[in-house]
Each structure stands twice: as C-alpha cells, then as structure tokens.
C-alpha cells in the first residue's frame, strides 16, 4: 500500500490506450478518440440530491478513459481494462431495462463464449443506448472501444458508475455526430441509473462530471436543475489559480467494496426521506405535492418534526441542516475561506453518521483518523457511506505527511481490510479536475 499523486491523463496513458484500440479495431492509432470522464467528489450536499436539495461538487484528476473508433456498421465491441470478456451488441437493438429483461427471462446480449458474470460491466454501455433510444435518437454507428479506470485505484465512493455511463454516452454521441448539451446528458445518465439499472439516486454525480470547471466549485439546485460555478477569489484574479495550489484533496480507501444496487441501505434511506416529506406535507395541508423534502419549507419541518418517528426526523434533520451547510460553504469558497469550508465538510460528515445513519464502522474510523491527521481542514465520507472511501481537504504543504499518517493509523485499526488495498494506493493525493470531454 502506498501514497500516490500525479497528473491525469498522462500522454503515455493516452498513447497506450490509443495503441490498444488500434490493435483491437485494425485502425490507425491517430483515428482513436478518447473520452476523459473524471470521478467526482461532493464536499457538501451529502444525500440530499435525490430530495431536490442544493449540492456542491467538483471533479478530481482521476477517472474513466474510454478509447474508441466508430464502427463501419451498427456493431459495438467493447473490452475492459479491469474485467475479462468482451461485450458485443448492435446500436439498433432495442434495449430493455434490466428488471424487465430479468422478469421476462430475456438473455442479456453478451458474447456467449464468455461467462456472464464477466460481462455485466457492459450493462452501462447498453444503458447508454437505452437512454439515447428512449429520447428518440436513431443510432446507426457502433464503436470499437476499450474502457479503463485510473490504474490501481478503487473507485468506490467516487461515482465511477456515473463516469462510466457518461463515457459511453459521449462516445456513442460522437460516433453518431449527435450534438448533445451537457444538461441533456445529465438526463440521459439519470435514465441509465434510475430506469435501466434501477438505482434510486439523484443527478449530483453526472452533473458534477459534465458541468465542472477546473478550480471551481459546481453548485447544483437539484430541484430546478439550475447550476452555477463558484470561483475562489484567487482564480478570478490570477489565471494560475493560486487557491488551487493551497489545498490538495485526500482520498482514503477503506477496502470495503459492494455495489450500491445490491446494498438495501441506499434505497431504504431514499424511501425514508420520501416518507418524512409525505408526513410533513400532510401535516401542513400540502399532500398533493410530490413527497420530496425540497417541497417542505424549513419552518414546516420545525413546526411538525415532533410528529415524525425518530428515524424519519433524523433523515429530515440531515436534509435541512445539510442544505444550510451547502449555502454557507459556497460563501466560504467564494471568499477563499478554506478553514470554514473544511469545518462545514466535517459537520456534514458528522450529520451523515448521526442523522442519515449511513456509515459503517471502518468508514467512521477512517473519518475520525482523517480529522486527526496533520493539515486536514475537513473530512467526510465520499459517496453513499456504505463502502468505498473518505475524502478530505488538506493543506497542500502537509498532504504527504497527512496521507502517511492516515495509512498507518488505519492499518492498526483495520489490518484485514487494509490488506485488501494491496493493488493500489491506500491514500490518494489529488488535485481538482475538469469536466468530461472527448479528446
């Protein structure tokens, strides 16, 4: 296990990927295009996007790379840098959501010479076709492509699923000469996740990946779907972006891995938020409104929260307090106050544990270790909190020291889980990233 930082994607990574796709397709490496689809972090706005809350996000300089060339026909042929097997289907085949195809006993359209479990990673590519088809796009050109994540990196908790979905969308759109706005692709990726795969998440992940800009904090109102970029003062006045050099982003990995679609905790929390909203709206005489907490006024929550069961009251308390933290955090970022920004991140992490109750012991331990690490300004879970990693903002000059401290302390508390992180870094030092793009 190590500590790692560096630029992404490097020219050598891009050249290597182009060469592999050229070998797969029999085409010249210069014809290969690469989708760069970064992972995202959510400093503030945890677990409120699915309730129409206001969230903040930024990308990091790690993520998904998809090298591809357009096919001469409708055929899609995909390979993965992480998983075995090939995925093959045609872009003009009708794609059904996974729960429908399973219910009707329809076989998944995969290379029958490969074990099925090896090819489930192709569901996101088929989901991208489903999303594009469902909005009336007629695709005629497939792709030959190779998809891979940042080398040696466990992407749990970094919204890798949204990064993958967006990578496929951008590749299919590019191959078919479709002009699609980022806001449209936010909806397309929502269709992949919500309708095709059956995960009840919001639009934070894909919004961050598609709308972010280097050095900025992306603010998204998930109810109105309006967004804005918050620039720190140094970036406004200095193109070198001095604030970008004042901090680093630490990602500390737990060794816990489990897909969100197989963890009942995530969808259960969403349902609890909706139930709390429903009861609060009924209490205020607004039961005809959609039961999400963004439709409940804060004063209605204060007036009627005693009528909620303790668990539902906690979920609502997290929503309203987190919304307030986001607004304060945007002001802190805009004024360059990293200290206050970090304190709000830590408070968000505590509310996730106490009110949203989404943490598990290893991640809570990791969160607490990060708060003790030298130079750390603030920390919280990254992602849903049932697996994956924690994030922290740290003074740039102390990032290496903090990373070593966290790695050593976590090994003492969770030696077995820490031993699972032997293929990649236990702690990753990152910089802010940019939006998804084709290069």
Automatic annotation (TrEMBL):
Q: Which UniProt keywords apply?
A: ATP-binding, Carbohydrate metabolism, Kinase, Magnesium, Metal-binding, Nucleotide-binding, Transferase
InterPro entries membership: GHMP_kinase_C_dom, GHMP_kinase_C_sf, GHMP_kinase_N_dom, Mevalonate/galactokinase, Ribosomal_Su5_D2-typ_SF, Ribsml_uS5_D2-typ_fold_subgr
Q: Name one GO cellular component term.
A: cytosol
- All copies of the GHMP kinase N-terminal domain together span 123-211
Q: Name one GO biological process term.
A: galactose metabolic process
Keyword check for Isomerase:
no
Q: Where is the GHMP kinase C-terminal domain?
A: 334-410
Q: Name one GO molecular function term.
A: metal ion binding
Please give the name of this protein: Galacturonokinase-like
Q: Which organism is it from?
A: Nicotiana tabacum
Q: Lineage of the native species? A: Eukaryota, Viridiplantae, Streptophyta, Embryophyta, Tracheophyta
Recorded name of the encoding gene: LOC107825860
